[in-house]
User: Fold ABC transporter permease from Thomasclavelia ramosa.
Amino acid sequence: MGNFKFAMTLLVKEYKKSAFYALTMVFAIAVCFIFFNIMNNDLLADPGAVVGGATWNQVNVPLSTTLSFIIICFCCFMIFFANSFFISRKTNEIAIMTLSGNSSFKSTKYLIYQTFVLLLIAAPIGLALGMAVTPISNYWMFHYLGIEASIYHIPSAAFMQTIVVVAMILVALCVFASGYIYRNDISSLLQQEKAMDFSDKRKLVIPSAVYLFLYVFGIVMMFMNEHSATAYIAPTGVGIVGAIGLIRYALPEYIKKFKEKKLLEKRYALIYVSNLGYSIQRAILLISLMMISVTGMIAAIAANQGAPREYITGVIGYIVIIILLITSIVYKFCMEAQTRKTLFFNLWKIGYTRKEITKIIKYEVFYFYLVLLLIPMIYIIIISGCFIYHGEMSVAFALGVIGVYFIPVVCSGLITYYNYKKAVVAPIHGGKNDGK
Assistant:
């Protein structure tokens, strides 16, 4: 069987591994198209268009253009992130191919074939979705800005720039796939999917209390600084450093001690707490991005309520970023669930019922999304409260902003629970433990 045919056979056979990845690409490409339309649409052009100068201080770039560019870059990053996780779930296949005598070049081609086909499928669907949603985006923006024009007016530059971005992404993904193959040997490939913990490789071990202090100090800094749209960037950055430290280093240490002292005889907690710690650590990057993106967008939106173009672009960007990040988190969690089939099957073999396994999954998913809600939500509420206090944001708008974050997270939790349960509980059949 040829390399290409083998790659396509496994891609179809294990379609669940690639479904969320393809959906991420579809949504990201659609969002790129929508924001290229905002950047290139003459009807939405900012009166203070990009102006050059002899020095950087003389260059003027409208915030709406800057936000659109940042969101497009963010979409590209989400594709790279999804690709990274997609490839990491292919380690056993690549290791087996290597043991069978395939060269690194053939393994690289195997990954490139699958990536190319998925992108070839996702690109036209993403463009079509973007074309379908763009009139809705135009309607909102035209209505808010008082523009009377056809909502179906889409500049040709939006198509060309989206195609160029897709081509650049394809090249970057091919380079990434090649680098991944050459960086990992057989031993590391076989161990990657089995590893369920992170070793602390720090040369300088910082006490956990320092990370807690940084997280709290970030909140204190918000009240110490003079109120402005940019005054919350540094405090949020400090808070993120603290949050990352708590999740990456303090939480595993706490979980380990807590398990040894309290959970050794707990039938459910010992398992779901261990899985929870691993899942949270694997999502550190996404949780950090969620925190900095959401808080930054809220500040940008609140500060530009008097600038219609920047304001409406910020609102759309805020919604899009949340959906992108939530989609990536669901994808990551569901892919992790695929690797835990053996774990839960073995639990069933030693006496756990399907109902008990479902209970373990429910607690793990619930506490994961509780962490995802609480860590950024504390900062979101404080920043919104500061803008309300200074009369730059209404309570109704703040509740809407919080709701836009809260509702997708809750919905994604339900979706994750359903897919997780379907992945590990549904395959368990037979025996007296199959029922209740």
Remarks:
- DSSP finds 15 helices and no strands in the chain.
- The longest helix spans residues 104-145.
- Residues 1-195 form one domain.
